[in-house]
Automatic annotation (TrEMBL):
Family annotation (Pfam families): Glycos_transf_1
Listed name of the protein: Glycosyltransferase involved in cell wall bisynthesis
Family annotation (InterPro entries): Glyco_trans_1
Domain Glycosyl transferase family stretches: 205-377
Keyword Zinc recorded: no
Keywords recorded for this protein, A-Z: Transferase
Keyword Transferase tagged: yes
Organism: Zobellia uliginosa
Length: 402
């Protein structure tokens, strides 16, 4: 497919550090930027601080290009310094460098829009000042309703999230919400402002890898902080694990190696063959292979405001694998999926209901694969980054005209 040139635009992304390495948030930012590049626009990502470990796999220059996207680190290092003083000096340098870089880009190339991925009010206020000084419109990449996020419990975060959801969000000239819930919320808080839903985005071609022979397993991918969901998946698996032939693989991000090993030992205590296997901090290529080899991919969504508002990035990657997805009928699921056709949808957020769909996968391998392939076709039609660039370009035009 050749790029359809819609015009010369320059979009700058702020708020995320770590590009081009990272999971959901970095992947979404990358694919939004690639969607703009695909229709002839220019995308630049500015990272204000180094977040990578020198012991990890990060090895790239401060400035460069990745998959057609320009990027730069204004912190003068891609690595996170050791020590409180050095970290904070780097942050200050990065913040000063952000404005210098934006000013230089505006002067040399022009900037048509700034897209912000940030939940801290203090940084959003700074970006608003930058946008006013440079006379560049600013839009929000809206993927969560901050005040509904259950793990954000500290008093400072609660105060931050109250102001963010009720006042600071009004500083943007427009929004790119990920779900109907957030689209409706932004329309209510900021009536009349440009507001276009950009659902999950995926590069389906990256999942065109050959399936390898392996033991049969279900795969769940989530964060250490979502203990409730992790325990739900384990509880559902317990109901269908009598002979332990079908395994449960769990990719848990955000935990240390020791935390992952301790959790794996704990959850396998009742089993003879240790059928639950945990992974953490694995290379993206290994993650893709685990998706492709699974017999089904698990993503239970809870009947909460948080899960109705969000649309997990990994659903797109699950679909791209061509394997069936098991989920619950919450939030965006009802807008895209049909039970038994493009996914298996438990009728409630209930371990028995969820395990029933897992059992269907084991007992109906051919039908399950057909569901996975139809889900992949639907996902490529709805969520591939190449299908979204045109509308996103029109969104920039719309904001420029207001």
């Amino acid at each position: 497919m050749h790029n359809k040139k819609l015009g010369s635009k320059h979009i700058v992304f702020l708020g995320e550090s770590g590009f081009p390495l990272g999971l959901a948030t970095i992947q979404r930012l990358t694919l939004m930027a690639r969607a703009f590049v695909h229709v002839g626009a220019k995308s630049t990502v500015i990272c204000r601080k180094g977040v990578h470990s020198k012991d990890g796999n990060a090895n790239f220059p401060l400035r460069g290009e990745f998959e057609g996207i320009d990027y730069c680190y204004t912190s003068q290092s891609i690595f996170k310094p050791k020590g409180f003083l050095r970290r904070n000096l780097q942050k200050i340098a990065g913040i000063l460098g952000e404005f210098r870089t934006l000013k230089a880009l505006k002067s040399s190339q022009g900037i048509d829009m700034i897209i912000v991925s940030e939940m801290k009010v203090v940084h959003i206020l700074r970006y608003w000042i930058f946008s006013r000084l440079l006379n560049v419109p600013m839009a929000v990449n809206l993927v969560e309703m901050a005040s509904s996020m259950q793990h954000r419990t500290s008093i400072f975060r609660r105060i931050n999230d109250f102001f963010l959801d009720n006042w600071v969000i009004k500083l943007y000239q427009g929004a790119l919400p990920i779900s109907d819930k957030l689209h409706e919320y932004y329309a209510k808080v900021c009536p009349g402002k440009p507001n276009m839903k950009v659902p999950i985005i995926c590069d389906f071609d990256k999942f065109s890898v050959k399936r390898k022979d392996s033991e049969p397993y279900f795969l769940y991918c989530g964060s250490f902080r979502y203990k409730e969901v992790r325990d739900f998946v384990i509880g559902a698996y317990e109901r269908i694990a009598d002979n332990e032939e079908t395994k449960l693989y769990m990719i848990v991000s955000g935990g240390s190696v020791k935390e992952t090993e301790d959790l794996q030992a704990e959850v396998n205590k009742q089993y003879k063959t240790a059928p639950i296997k945990l992974f953490s901090n694995i290379p993206y290529s290994e993650l893709v292979q685990l998706y492709v080899n699974a017999i089904a991919l698990l993503i239970p969504l809870r009947p909460t405001v948080q899960d109705r508002a969000r649309f997990p990035h990994k659903i797109g990657e699950y679909l791209a694998s061509g394997n069936p997805v098991i989920t619950t009928n919450i939030g965006e699921v009802k807008n895209y999926f049909e039970h038994g056709k493009t996914a298996l949808i438990a009728n409630s957020y209930n371990m028995d209901a969820f395990s029933k769909e897992m059992k269907f996968i084991i007992e109906n391998p051919i039908k399950s694969k057909e569901i996975g392939l139809r889900g992949q076709e639907m996902g490529r039609r709805e969520f591939d980054y190449r299908t979204l660039g045109g509308n996103m370009w029109k969104f920039v035009e719309n904001i420029s005209a207001t």
